[in-house]
């Protein structure tokens, strides 16, 4: 898209995370003079670059799907992603571990996964898997172009034939019931429904439409960039600067005010006037910068938070596989704990070992460990949790669980432990890095709008289309489209 008559010629993008870099490159590709402002001393936002004792750690997203969306960000300025990044296909995408000791590799190739499910639970369940793949792919084909990868202007923008097709696919029913219609084995129900936590809602409360996340992960595939997830940021920054985007690090924006048909943007060191602005912070922060409380739609349900442990393991870790999901005895019981505002007593958790794909992230013989344990957000019942007091005992709890699961955690170096209190200290509302949950009333046209005013837009996980690397990349492009439009 190019600026229409009277469209913006200059723009500021606030925040150099993935959403901000996406917005900046799409604006730059449309001929706009872009200044990218970042309060921190490095780009990346929630995908930071962390080096510790010779290890390159992950403290942000670790699962990369829908890489054609990332490719489109490079293509916005005529660049090829393949020239800038090396992505490795992960097979299996995940390995699922169950409390009885059973292990299920989660392949993205339907034939291989059919055989794996048949070996694991029998041919009847494998046939259910085949039906499930067909359904989630049809959901994806409806949802991606009509509900995810486009700007929505309220409920009327959804009234089209695609809405009926999604309803016919049971997209508005409960996710757990949709999953249950394909799988009778409880372990498979868990393995194909835990992805709803990516959008902040347990399967018994999520809508069936979020089975589309399974299509992204378990049909389209998971990939990993050599050099770690921050390699994506480094590549996008290099491309942006080579195409004329001015990146200013360590420059915090303090106010954005309408003025003279554009906006005056004040920072800790200067003030500038531009035609358009894209904000990539949480909506509540955007409202503060705009001095307009009405700019942020109230959130009734934030996503659960997490405790994240990242460290180097000099002795290495036994086994294979990049991503591992470990289920407790009752996934529903663990999710009930989160809803009640207490840490999971029998946790289900994610472990990633990126050095199994890219050994260069650690010294020879060592591995990088990433362990994510979901916890309540600092909201509602979870607001009463004292993470300063819980920090040490919860770390011990995590280490015991990890050790029982077969990970050598006796000797960790360069350790980073982030609790909900740490996420709050980083400026994230409710102490969660996952923003507002995708409940029905906080999804699609009901989510925080990305249009804040004429040539003033919002990007990031707090607005449409929502949470996750693919979604925030889309949000940057949608925000750019908003400000490039003649009418804002």
TrEMBL record:
Q: What is this protein called?
A: Phytoene desaturase
Pathway entry: Carotenoid biosynthesis
Q: Which family does it belong to?
A: Belongs to the carotenoid/retinoid oxidoreductase family.
Top-level division of the source organism's lineage: Bacteria
Q: Which is one Pfam family of this protein?
A: Amino_oxidase
Query: Which UniProt keywords are listed?
Result: Carotenoid biosynthesis, Oxidoreductase
Q: What is one Gene Ontology biological process annotated in the Swiss-Prot or TrEMBL record?
A: carotenoid biosynthetic process
Describe the location of the Amine oxidase domain by residue ranges.
Answer: 18-484
The EC number(s) attached to this protein equal: 1.3.99.26, 1.3.99.28, 1.3.99.29, 1.3.99.31
What the entry lists under InterPro entries is as follows: Amino_oxidase, Carotenoid/retinoid_OxRdtase, FAD/NAD-bd_sf
Q: Which organism is it from?
A: Flexivirga oryzae
PANTHER family cross-referenced by the UniProt entry: PHYTOENE DESATURASE
According to the UniProt entry, its GO molecular function terms are:
oxidoreductase activity
């Amino acid at each position: 898209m190019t600026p229409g008559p009277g469209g913006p010629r200059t723009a500021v993008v606030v925040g150099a995370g993935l959403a901000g870099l996406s917005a900046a490159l799409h604006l730059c590709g449309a001929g706009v003079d872009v200044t990218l402002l970042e309060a921190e001393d490095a780009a990346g936002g929630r995908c930071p670059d962390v080096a510790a004792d010779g290890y390159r750690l992950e403290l942000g997203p670790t699962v990369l799907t829908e890489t054609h969306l990332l490719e489109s960000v490079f293509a916005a300025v005529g660049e090829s992603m393949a020239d800038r990044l090396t992505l490795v296909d992960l097979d299996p995408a995940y390995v699922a571990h169950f409390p009885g000791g059973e292990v299920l590799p989660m392949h993205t190739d339907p034939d291989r996964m059919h055989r794996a499910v048949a070996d694991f639970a029998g041919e009847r369940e494998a046939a259910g898997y085949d039906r499930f793949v067909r359904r989630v792919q049809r959901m994806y084909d409806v949802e991606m172009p009509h509900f995810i990868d486009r700007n929505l202007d309220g409920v009327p923008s959804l009234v089209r034939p695609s809405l009926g097709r999604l309803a016919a696919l049971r997209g508005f029913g409960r996710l757990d019931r949709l999953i249950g219609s394909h799988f009778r084995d409880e372990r498979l129900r868990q393995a194909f429904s835990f992805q709803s936590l990516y959008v902040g809602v347990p399967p018994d409360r999520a809508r069936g439409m979020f089975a589309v996340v399974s299509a992204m992960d378990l049909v389209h595939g998971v990939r990993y960039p050599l050099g770690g997830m921050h390699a994506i940021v480094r590549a996008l920054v290099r491309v942006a600067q080579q195409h004329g985007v001015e990146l200013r690090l360590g420059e915090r924006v303090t106010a954005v005010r309408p003025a003279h048909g554009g906006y005056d943007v004040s920072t800790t060191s200067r003030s500038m006037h531009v035609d358009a602005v894209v904000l990539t912070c949480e909506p509540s922060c955007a409202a503060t910068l705009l001095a307009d409380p009405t700019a942020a739609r109230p959130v009734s349900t934030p996503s659960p938070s997490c405790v994240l442990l990242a460290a180097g393991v000099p002795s290495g870790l036994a086994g294979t596989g990049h991503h591992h999901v470990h289920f407790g005895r009752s996934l529903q019981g663990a999710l009930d704990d989160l809803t009640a505002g207490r840490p999971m007593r029998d946790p289900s958790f994610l472990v990633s070992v990126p050095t199994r794909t890219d050994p260069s992230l650690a010294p020879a013989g060592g591995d990088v460990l990433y362990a994510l344990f979901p916890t309540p957000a600092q909201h509602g019942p979870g607001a009463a949790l004292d993470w300063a007091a819980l920090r040490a005992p919860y770390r011990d709890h995590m280490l015991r669980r990890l050790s029982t699961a077969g990970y050598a955690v006796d000797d960790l170096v360069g350790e980073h432990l982030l609790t909900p209190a740490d996420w709050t200290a980083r400026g994230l509302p409710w102490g969660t890095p996952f923003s507002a949950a995708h409940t029905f009333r906080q999804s699609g046209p009901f989510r925080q709008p990305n249009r804040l005013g004429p040539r003033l837009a919002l990007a990031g996980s707090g607005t449409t289309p929502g949470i996750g690397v693919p979604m925030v990349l889309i949000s940057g492009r949608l925000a750019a489209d908003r400000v490039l439009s003649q009418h804002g």
